[in-house]
Amino acid sequence: MTANPGILIRGARLAAALTERGAELSAAAPVDLRIVDGVIVERGTDLAPRAGERVIEADGLVALTGLVDLHTHLREPGFEQSETVLTGTRAAAAGGFTSVFAMANTLPVQDTAGVVEQVQALGDAGGYATVRPIGAVTEDLAGEKLSEIGAMAQSRAQVRVFSDDGKCVHDPLLMRRALEYVKTFDGVIAQHAQDPRLTEGAQMNEGALSSELGLKGWPAVAEESIIARDVLLAEHTGARLHICHLSTAGSVEVVRWAKARGVAVTAEVTPHHLILTEELVRSYDARYKVNPPLRREEDVLALRAAVADGVIDIIATDHAPHPLEAKECEWDAAAFGMVGLESALPIALATLVNGGHTSWAELEVLLSHRPAQIGGLTGAPIALEAGQPADLVLVDPSGSSVFDTERLRGMSVNSPYLGMELPGSVRYTVRRGYLTLDDGALVPEATVAAAARAAGATQNGAAAASAAEHSEVSQ
Ligand SMILES: NC(=O)N[C@@H](CC(=O)O)C(=O)O
Ligand SMILES: [Zn+2]
Ligand SMILES: [Zn+2]
């Protein structure tokens, strides 16, 4: 029956066991994990290898449940010169991600059941990661009329997260209606908080430096005022609100206040807003042009502290690939956005774990459990123990290396970290019991696609097949 003889991981340290900030790896006992047919079937010590089993020696490696990115731009359909679902999920696997939520700013926009189902199917076929499409809040992201939220939620893609990301849902009545709508099925609105009037033509963080450089400023209040409004709307409607890419100290204070009031708000921060500052804009190198813009050192420190004290719930990459010509131009003409899937874990190590702001166990929550929970992702593990789905990542936290284009596995190279020395590396990614990243090398497409098909036939396949039958009957 078992086509796949399984995997035995020996001597890994579980992130979940490293609960103290600043703890050495030796604070956790090494454990072995046996994986068969997409499930962790055994956890113990000194497990004996079985015939045909792939043995991974994980001494010195940390095991986390597979990373989940709530904010990825996969660009397909429409912008395949930047990324495709396949290339973006390869980048995800290289970064230790087993699931990604794909933003809706594609062409056509992910604002119908047909488009979200297409994106999800492309993810399923590739097999490098679970792709959960995000639905647009408004038709064509135009901010004028609500999209087919219900149809997307009921589609095979079962959309739970809705966002006009790239654009702010600015009309307060539309925002209110969207929140009311998603509340009926426990969905969530992920807001790109940017007041469009306050940021017309804006190019970088507003302050002394923007004046000095002669670039139009993007004030912190453009973000903070939308967050303040939306947490009040979330409180009023009782719906779940998620704030994308928090970038200012003031935003942290607004979210802190909202949480203290009991509002159902969650917040994300990107790796780049945890490490980079506006000073980089002095170079006029458009790799540093991003939305929201890089802010001041004070903001970076406030964001790290907010992760440490739980005001910020998750880290999300906002992986935003762009072709060279969109970046190798004058600052004003360049596109906003940075790739981030492959660098997320090293940056999180550099800024949070190695800095003593979070433990490994907290990092696993920030990059895996909590984003899964916010996005309503089903079938993701909540612990690496027997009976759980085998989505996991093995990370080598030791050493550091220069981050170069070799490390980028998507189509675009607009990373702000090229040439920087970053700690740690992702060694193995296991999705549904099969390898997508093997000792730092991506597993070939045909192998992964075949493994995904086989995995579909055993576990989730049963549910998917019955859902498909059901939808055929009901059509
Ligand atoms: N973050 C970015 O700078 N760009 C994103 C849009 C967005 O996330 O707002 C993109 O789609 O390129
Ligand atoms: Zn955005
Ligand atoms: Zn985005």
Automatic annotation (TrEMBL):
Binds 2 Zn(2+) ions per subunit. GO terms for molecular function: allantoinase activity; dihydroorotase activity; zinc ion binding. CDD domains: DHOase_IIa (cd01317). Belongs to the metallo-dependent hydrolases superfamily. DHOase family. Class I DHOase subfamily. The active site is at residue 318. InterPro entries: DHOase, DHOase/Allantoinase_Hydrolase, DHOase_cat, Dihydroorotase_CS, Metal-dep_hydrolase_composite, Metal_Hydrolase. It catalyses: (S)-dihydroorotate + H2O = N-carbamoyl-L-aspartate + H(+). The keyword Iron-sulfur does not apply. GO terms for cellular component: cytoplasm. Keywords: Hydrolase, Metal-binding, Pyrimidine biosynthesis, Zinc. Residues 62-248 form the Dihydroorotase catalytic domain. It holds the Pfam family DHOase. Zn(2+) 1 binds at residues 71, 73, 165, 318. Pathway: Pyrimidine metabolism; UMP biosynthesis via de novo pathway; (S)-dihydroorotate from bicarbonate: step 3/3. Catalyzes the reversible cyclization of carbamoyl aspartate to dihydroorotate. This is Dihydroorotase. Its EC number is 3.5.2.3. GO terms for biological process: 'de novo' UMP biosynthetic process; purine nucleobase catabolic process. It is an enzyme of class 3 (hydrolase). Its cofactor is Zn(2+). The lineage of its organism: Bacteria, Bacillati, Actinomycetota, Actinomycetes, Micrococcales. Substrate binds at residues 73-75, 105, 291, 322, 336-337. Zn(2+) 2 binds at residues 165, 192, 245.
